[in-house]
Amino acid sequence: MSPSPPALTPAAITTRLRAAGCVFAEDEATVLLADAATPAELESRVARRVAGEPLEYIVGWAEFCGLRVSVAPGVFVPRQRTTLLVREALRVAPRRPVVLDLCCGAGAIGAAILAARSDASVYAADIDPAATDCARRTLAAQHRSSSAAGGDAHRWSSSAAERDAYRDPTPPYVYTGDLYSPLPASLKGTVDVLAVNAPYVPTDEIAFMPSEARDHEARAALDGGADGLALHRRVADGAREWLTLGGHLLIETSERQASATAGILEHAGLSVAIVRDDEVDGTAVIGRLGPAG
Length: 293
Fold this sequence. Notes:
There is one protein chain. Helices cover 39% and strands 18% of the residues. It contains 12 helices and 9 strands. It has helices at residues 10-19, 25-35, 39-50, 55-59, 83-92, 108-116, 129-148, 151-155, 160-164, 211-214, 230-242, 258-267; strands spanning 61-64, 67-70, 98-102, 121-126, 173-176, 191-196, 243-253, 271-277, 282-288. The strands form 2 sheets. A 7-stranded mixed beta sheet has the order 5-4-3-6-7-9-8, sandwiched between helices. Residues 1-5 and 151-169 have low confidence and may be disordered.
C-alpha cells in the first residue's frame, strides 16, 4: 500500500512554493488555500504554481488597488507599479470625468479609478478579446458596486440628451480593437483622462523578462517595438482628437525611457511632466492639452 500524500497544510504549501522560487510563498499559499474548493483542486493548483504558472491565472484574479481584477491565461497581469498611473489620473481628474483606459488589458486602471470616483464615466479598449472579456467582467462588477453606493446618480446627473449622445448608454463601456479604432465617434473631444499602459518593452529585451511574463503573457501585451515606444507614438498621435481641452494623457513608461516618452508627447503638442515613485518602481509621463498657440 503506497503512503498517503503529505497533507496540504499552509506550511507544507509554503515550503513547496519557496523551493520553486516563489518570493512571496507564504502569501501565495494563503491565496491558494482560500480559493480551492477541494483537496484535489488545491493539489492541482499548487502543482501548477510550482511548475511556474502565474498565480493570477490559477485563481483567475489579480489584486490591484484593493480590487480583484479578473484575469485569464495570456492576459497581461496588472503590476503594482501601475498604481502610480491611477494615483496621478485621480489627481488630475475634474468633476464627473470622462476616463478612457486605453490598452486596458484586464481593465485594472479603469476599475481602480471608478472605485475611487463613482462620478466617473469610464471607457476601456484593448486589441485582445481575451483581455476585454476580463475588463468587461471587472468593470461590470465595479459598476454594480458604485451603483449600489449611489454612483449612477452622480455619473449621469447631466441631461438625458447628453447621456443619449453616447452610443452605448449601458455600462461597462469596453471595446475590442486597435487603439482608438473601436471607440464611438461621439467620444471624440470629450475625454478628460486618457490613461494608457501600452507595452513598452523593446522587442530584443523580452527574452530577459521574468519567465512568468515572457512565457505566459501574450506577446502583444509586452512588445513595444524596436525601442519600446512604438505604441507611445501611436497613442500620442491620436490623443488630441479624443481629449477635451485641458484633458490629460498619462502613459506608463520606464525610468530609462521617460525622457523619450516625454519627447513624443511634446511633439504631439502636449505640455508634459514626468512623475516617478520609487516605492512602487513606477514612472509615468503626463501630457496636458492646452489652448492652441
